[in-house]
Amino acid sequence: MLDLTGKVAFVAGAGSLGEGWGNGRATAVLMARQGAKVFGVDINEQALIDTAAIMEREGHKNWAWQRCDLTSNDDVKAAIDACVEQFGRVDILVNVVGGSVPGDPVSLGVDAWDAQMDLNLKTAFLGCKHVLPIMLRQFEAEGKGGAIVNVSSIAHMSHQVGGRVHVAYAASKAGLMAFSRSTAIAYVKKGIRVNTVVVGMMDTPTVKTRITKQLGVSADELNANRNAAIPMGFMGDAWDIANAIVFLASDEAKYITATQLVVDGGVTAAR
Ligand SMILES: NC(=O)c1ccc[n+]([C@@H]2O[C@H](COP(=O)([O-])OP(=O)(O)OC[C@H]3O[C@@H](n4cnc5c(N)ncnc54)[C@H](O)[C@@H]3O)[C@@H](O)[C@H]2O)c1
């Protein structure tokens, strides 16, 4: 089940904002555990070095990484070229890069709006721009294209816990889902599947660092608020997201494209 042996995965955002398991780091490590050759990129070199240490500790030899700003077309092209040079192909593209800044249309600066669109939407566009031709060539040569998984957020539907307003995050993550669906249909006859994992409130390092600062609350208070807002009663973790991504990237999901897998402990259904 979910065997990724022989597949090459390009994981964008394979570090973590802070110590521990971010969604991208868990995804990169889980893909390696499932047998994939993994090429991880992130803007944070130290975070990649930390991921590399885990790969080393677990004995995953088929792992390579490169620092890359996913909002830069040149960086993305160079990293994907490096992946192909190293491993010969790309079967899986995962884009986990993203993050939120608070603000409504009046309080949010124009530069901050543009930066949110770049971080949450352009990153996926650039990954697809450079990976799709490779997957297309693979499909034409051997009948196997590839699988792309993007990472959105339940925040595209409403405010998160605490009534935090983040219009650019909500809009960019909603756009990401439309982008994924539309790209999926554009390539539906070419052996390439494109899906989105819609993330709920997860207990990742970013929650403890960035969001506590943005809201001006303690980590305990934030955790309590988030847990209380979830029908299951507790936050998920990075492995819940990694498992969903690995499933959508695997051959077991071969008939699934242009859809969303919501991983949120029941939050959206209960609203
Ligand atoms: N944690 C949650 O509760 C939650 C909720 C909803 C959605 N998400 C989504 O899950 C994804 C990952 O979240 P996380 O909690 O693991 O956060 P995270 O901040 O740990 O992960 C994001 C990673 O992307 C990297 N990154 C940021 N900008 C980059 C750039 N320009 N180029 C390359 N890499 C860059 C960061 O260094 C980091 O390693 C994001 O897309 C986020 O929006 C998370």
UniProtKB/TrEMBL annotation:
<dbReference type="InterPro" id="IPR002347">
    <property type="entry name" value="SDR_fam"/>
</dbReference>
<dbReference type="InterPro" id="IPR036291">
    <property type="entry name" value="NAD(P)-bd_dom_sf"/>
</dbReference>
<protein>
    <submittedName>
        <fullName>SDR family oxidoreductase</fullName>
    </submittedName>
</protein>
<comment type="similarity">
    <text>Belongs to the short-chain dehydrogenases/reductases (SDR) family.</text>
</comment>
<dbReference type="Pfam" id="PF13561">
    <property type="entry name" value="adh_short_C2"/>
</dbReference>
<keyword id="KW-0560">Oxidoreductase</keyword>
